[in-house]
Design goal:
This protein has 104 residues and is mostly helical. It contains four helices and four strands, in the order E-E-E-H-H-E-H-H.
Length: 104
C-alpha cells in the first residue's frame, strides 16, 4: 500500500505476487468497503478463492484492479460494468506488449 506522507514521502509495503489477501486486507490496502469489493466480485472484476466472503482470499493483482476501478470511477465517472471492461482491456494490452518485447 502506498500513501502520501505529510512531507511528500511515500511509504508502503511490498506484497508478493503469490501472497493472498483477506477481504479485510484488501479493503484496508485499497481504502474500499467490503460491500464495494463484493460488487466487484459480482461484476467479475475480482475472482477470490473461497466459497463465501469470510473465506475469500485475493491475489495481489486484485489490489491493482481495485485501484484502477476506483480511479476510473472517480476521475471519469465510469460505471462498474464499464470499469470491468476497461480493466480487462488494459490487462490484455499489457499481455500483448509483453509478447512484443520478447526476443524472437
Amino acid at each position: 500500500m502506498v500513501t502520501d506522507e505529510p512531507h511528500g514521502l511515500l511509504s508502503g509495503s511490498i506484497i508478493e505476487d503469490q501472497a493472498l489477501l483477506t477481504l479485510r486486507d484488501l479493503c484496508a490496502a485499497c481504502s474500499v468497503s467490503a460491500n464495494r469489493v463484493q460488487e466487484m466480485v459480482e461484476e467479475g472484476i475480482l475472482d477470490p478463492v473461497g466459497s463465501d466472503a469470510a473465506e475469500w482470499r485475493f491475489s495481489a493483482i486484485s489490489m491493482r484492479r481495485v485501484r484502477i476501478v476506483r480511479h476510473l470511477q472517480r476521475d471519469l465517472e465510469v460505471k462498474l460494468s464499464g470499469a470491468a471492461v476497461a480493466v480487462q482491456l488494459l490487462e490484455e494490452l499489457e499481455q500483448l506488449k509483453a509478447l512484443l518485447r520478447r526476443p524472437g
